[in-house]
Specification:
With 726 residues, the chain is of the alpha+beta class. 18% of the residues lie in helices and 36% in strands. It has a domain of 264 residues: Rossmann fold, CATH 3.40.50. The strands form 10 sheets. The protein has an 8-stranded mixed β-sheet, sandwiched between helices. Helix 8 crosses helix 9. It is globular, with a radius of gyration of 27 Å. The two termini are 53 Å apart.
Length: 726
Amino acid sequence: MKKILLSLFLLAIAMISFGQDKKITIERIWDDYYFYPRGVAGYTAMPKSDYYTVVKRGGIERYSFATGDKIDLLVSNEELERLSGGAVNMGKVSSYEFTSDESKIVFAIDEESIWRRSTLAYYYVYDIAQKTLTLVADTNTKLHFAVLTEDGTKVLFARDCDLFYQDMATGKITQITRDGKPNAILNGYADWVYEEELDMSRAASWSPDGTKIAFLRFDESRVKEYNFALYDDLYPTDFKYKYPKAGEDNSLVDVYIYDVANGNLSRVDLGDNTNCYFPRVYWMPNSRDAIILKLNRHQDQLDFIRYNTVTKQQDIVYTDKNDKWLDVTDNYYFLKDGKTMIVTSERDGFNHIYKVTLSEGLQQLTSGNWEVNEIQYVNEDKKLIYYLSNESGVLNRDLYSITFDGKKKTMLSSGDGWNQPSFSPNGHFYRNQYSNLNTLPVYTIRDAKGKELRVLNDNKHVKETMDKYGFVQREIIHFTTDDGTELYGWMMKPANFNPNKRYPVMMTCYGGPGSQQVMNAYSSAQDLAFYQMLAQHGYICVCVDGRGTATRGDAFKKVIYQQMGKYEAIDQIAAANWLKKQSYVDGDRIGIWGWSFGGYLSALSLFRGDGAFKMAISVAPVTNWRYYDNIYTERFMRTPQENPDGYDLNSPTTYAKDLKGSYLLIHGTADDNVHFQNAMELVKALNEAGVEYDQFFFPNKNHFIMGGNTRTYLYNKLAKYILEHL
C-alpha cells in the first residue's frame, strides 16, 4: 500500500512539474536558438528540369518536384574534399548555383561579409559530367562575385576593384578594366550607398548569349569620406570609406559595354550623370539591346532607356513617375518578343501590375484599393503572371495568377496568412513558405495551380519546444485615432491574463517608409521570443504600424513626404493613448523601443509624447537625418538645402529638452550604416538640456551589434532596463 501511495505521489509531482512552463531566458533565445524556426538547408530549384536540390551532411541531393523521390547524390562532400585537396567541403559552402544548362555548379566558399549585401569568397566551378573542380581566378585572393555564362564556358569575376573573365576550357584570364582603386574607382560592383539603398551588390552581367558584358563603373573620387576608430591596438585603427550624406555628392556612375570577341570597351553616353542614379541594367533576350534604368536625384522619375549595342542608338521606352517618390524594385520582366514588359507601378495610388508595350503604351492588369506586393513568376507560354497581394486582407499576403489581358484572376493560397513562394525556373512547381500570426513557417512543395504535393518542414519540433516554455498567442488589435486614422497592431498578453488587473505595456516599433511589422505572419522569431519572455514577467507587448508603412496605398504611405518622423511619432503616441483607455492597461507604465529607424522613432515618440511613455530604448538610432545617406534620406525628405525645416522639426535632438521619463541610448561605435555620430549628437543635446538619461556603447560593433556574446549581452541589458524602469 505504501509503495502504491508513493508511486501516486511521485506521479502527481511529475504531472505538476510537466504542467509548469519553463522560464524563457535570453541565453535560450540568443545562445541556443531554441525558438528559431528552421528552413530547408540549401534548397535550390534546378534551372530547366523538374528537380530541386537540398544540402545534406553527405553532399547535395537531387529530388523530383513531382514525386518527392530522391534521384541521386549530385555531388558528395567526400568528392569535393578529394578534388580540392581538402579546401572545399559542404561545411565551407556558403551558397551555390547552377548554370542554365545544369552542366556546372558554382560554389562560394568561406564567404565573408563586407557590407549588408556584398561579400568576398573563393569560387569553385564543379563540372557535373566531368567531375572536375576548378578554382576561379586560380589565386588565393577572394573575389566579390563569380558568374558563369548560360552555357558555362566563361566566368566573370571582380577582384581588387577591377573586372575580369576566365575561359573555363583554357583557364585563360582576360582583364577588362585596369583603373580600379579602393575608395576611388569600382568596376562591376556597387559603392556603399547603391548597395545599401538600391538593393544591389554585383553590378555586372553577361548578355544571354555570352558575347557581351554590361557593367557599372563607380567613380567615388568626389564622395566625402567618413571615418571611425577601431579599438583594436595600442593606437586605434582609423577606418575610412566613402559615405555620401544627405545633400552631398554621390559617385559618378557610368554604364560600360564590353565585347568579348574584339575586346572593345565602350562607355554608353547617357547624358549628365552628376545628379542621377543608374539602379539597374538588364539585357533583352536578343543579346543586342540593353535596358538601362535612370533615376533622377529626387527619385520621382524612372526612365527605361533601350540601348542598341550594335548601332549605339538609344531611346526611352517607358517612364514611371510619382508626385512624391518611386521605389526601385526587381519587378520588371522583359518578354521574348522584345517589345513587351511586365512591371508594377503606384501610378494610380496603389501598387499594381501593368503590361507595357515598349515605346507605345501600357495596360493596367490589376486594380483596386489593395496592393500587389511583388510579381513572383511570368509564364510566357501560358500567358500567366503569378503575383503576391493583400487583396484578401491588409495584413495577408496571398498568391494569385492572372492572364496577360488582366482576366481569369485566381487565388492559389488560402486567404488567411502570409505566403512566400519560390518558383522553379520553368514555372511547373514552387516551394512555398507559409505562416500566420501564431503559426511557425511551414515549407511545402506545390504545383503551379497551388496544390500541395508534400511538406518539406513544418517546424513541429520548434513548436513543441515553444509549448513547453508556455508561449502565448498574439492577437490583432485595430483602432481609430482621434484624428480619424485607422491603425492595425498586434498584442501579446501574459499567459495568466486577468482582464480585471492592470498591466504594464512594452511597445516595439520600426515604422520606416514602406516597412511592415504588423502582418498575419510569423516573423522576427528571436524578438518574438524576447516578447514572450517579457509576457512571462507580466508585461503586455504591442506593435502598431503607423502612417508611412506599407500595403495601404500611397496616401497612407507617402503622407510623410518631406516631414519624415512627424506622423510616425504622432501615431505611436496615439497608440499609447489608446492603450491607456483600456481597462487592463496600467497607463502610467507604457514603454517603447526600437532599432535603427525604430530607435529614432522611439526617441522622437518619448521626447514629443508629453508623458505618453514612461520610458524608451533606442538602439542604433538616426538622431538627425542630415547624418544619414543621401539616397535613402532624400527619397523621402529631399535635400537639407531644399527642406531644412523638415530635417530640424523631426529630429530627436531638437526635442532633447522635452525628455520626460527614462531613456536608454545604445549604439555600436563601428556602425557603418547609422553612424555613431548620431548617438554623440543626441548625447550632446541631452547634456546641454541637463536631463537625465542612460547610455551604453558597444566598441567595434556595427549596425547589427553581433558577434561572440554581444547579442546575448545586449538583450540582457534591454530586459534589465525594462524590468527596472517600467
